[in-house]
């Protein structure tokens, strides 16, 4: 019960932040339905990005999805994601992939593992979604 209430509170905060982003949810801001680097770069303030990361990490932990690196502070994660999205070729990659890549780097994954993961993510980003 507490986990659901905490998730709801965090998601509510994330939604408020999303409301501040200019044109926060255009087609360009999503890759295969997932928020990407174009969305991330439109968040106006560092603090907005920190709250977005907190909401993502807490929500992912509750749902048992990919975890944020425990040894990193939220501000460090934001700076790592900002660096990742400075490369134009990464802007179309989903936010959740950027978090995973940052986590891989922080935990000492080999460069070849990171590059292989990025290659898979890029291929997925290029593939159209299957029709329902």
Q: What this model shows, in words?
A:
With 132 residues, the chain is mainly α. The protein has one domain. The chain has six helices and two strands. About 8% of the residues have low confidence.
Describe what is shown at a glance.
This protein is mostly helical. It has helices at 2-20, 37-42, 46-63, 74-85, 95-106, 111-126, and strands spanning 30-31, 34-35.
Task: Work out the number of β strands.
Answer: 2
- The unreliable regions are 5-10, 19-23
Helix content: 55-70%
Shape: globular
Radius of gyration: 15 Å
Could you tell me how far the N terminus lies from the C terminus, measured between alpha carbons in angstroms? Answer: 33 Å
Task: Return the average pLDDT rounded to an integer.
Answer: 82
Main sheet makeup: 2 strands, antiparallel
**Strand-residue proportion:** under 5%
Spatial sequence of strands, sheet with the most strands? 1-2
- Helix run count: 6
Order of helices and strands: HEEHHHHH
Class of secondary structure makeup: mainly alpha
- Count of structural domains: 1
Label this structure with key terms:
132 residues; mainly alpha; two-stranded antiparallel ribbon; 6 helices
Helices and strands, with pairings:
Blueprint: H1 2-20, E1 30-31, E2 34-35, H2 37-42, H3 46-63, H4 74-85, H5 95-106, H6 111-126
Antiparallel strand pairs: 1-2
Helix pairs in contact: 1-3, 3-4, 4-5, 5-6
């Amino acid at each position: 019960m507490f986990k659901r209430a905490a998730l709801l509170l965090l998601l509510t905060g994330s939604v408020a932040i999303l409301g501040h982003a200019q044109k926060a949810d255009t087609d360009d801001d999503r890759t295969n339905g997932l928020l990407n680097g174009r969305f991330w770069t439109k968040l106006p303030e560092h603090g907005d990005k920190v709250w977005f990361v907190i909401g993502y990490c807490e929500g992912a932990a509750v749902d048992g999805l990919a975890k944020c690196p425990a040894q990193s502070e939220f501000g460090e994660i934001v700076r790592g994601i900002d660096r990742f999205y400075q490369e134009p070729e990464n802007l179309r990659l989903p936010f959740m992939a950027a978090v995973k890549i940052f986590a891989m780097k922080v935990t000492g994954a080999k460069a070849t593992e990171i590059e292989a993961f990025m290659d898979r993510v890029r291929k997925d980003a290029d593939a159209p979604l299957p029709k329902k």
